Amino acid sequence: MLSFLFWLFVVPAGAAALVSVRTGQRYREYVEGELRGPELGMPGDEEGAHEGEGEGEGEPKADYLPAVSLILPLKGLDNDLAENIKSLAEQDYPDFELLIVSRDATDPAVQAARTLLGDRARFIVAGAPPEGTGEKVHNLAVAVDQLRPESSVLAFAD
Q: Going by fewer Cβ within 10 Å, which terminus of the chain is more open, N or C?
């Protein structure tokens, strides 16, 4: 009797696992197809022509490099701040902007960032947040309002 109950539960569980794996594979194939396809309006996609086909099954187009805005909110000095700020500014990407946002321009972290980065970043002073809004949320919202129009990817670092 216990053997019957065992198989009564194991067989459906095994079938469900196989269906789940196949569903995951189909979803992965769908996402890869969307990344390669003209549906995203990628540059160079005219009438379904894909430059770079044959570079590898499932790989996105290498020439699609959208403009990126990277926002870094700062408040106070942290360990390794200089190293972290430099690593963000030295990204090997053709079209990105680094925005440093803080409540106050006299914050020691902002002063350190200005010394390290000079004109490699745009500095935004958000000011005091409105009543009921957290400082970091306010700073990020102000920075998002000041993004350059050509940026289509937004990233946050902290």
A: N
Starting from the edge strand earliest in sequence, which strands make up the sheet with 122-125, in order? 122-125, 96-102, 68-73, 153-156
- Please choose, from the candidates 112, 96, 108, 113, the residue with its C-alpha nearest in 3D space to the C-alpha of residue 155: 96
**Sign of the dihedral through C-alpha 105, 107, 108, 110:** negative
For tokens 């000079």, name the residue: 118
Read off the pLDDT band of 58 (50, 70, 90). Answer: low
Q: Of 40, 60, 80, which closes a domain?
A: 60
Q: What predicted TM-score, i.e. pTM, was given to this entire model?
A: 0.60
Report the C-alpha gap between 26 and 21 in whole angstroms: 9
pLDDT tens column, 111-155: 999 999 988 999 999 999 999 999 999 999 999 999 999 999 999
Domain count for the chain: 2
Domain of residue 3 covers 1-60
Q: Given the structure tokens 């044959």, which residue do they identify? A: 54
* Contact (Cβ atoms closer than 8 angstroms) between residue 55 and residue 85: no
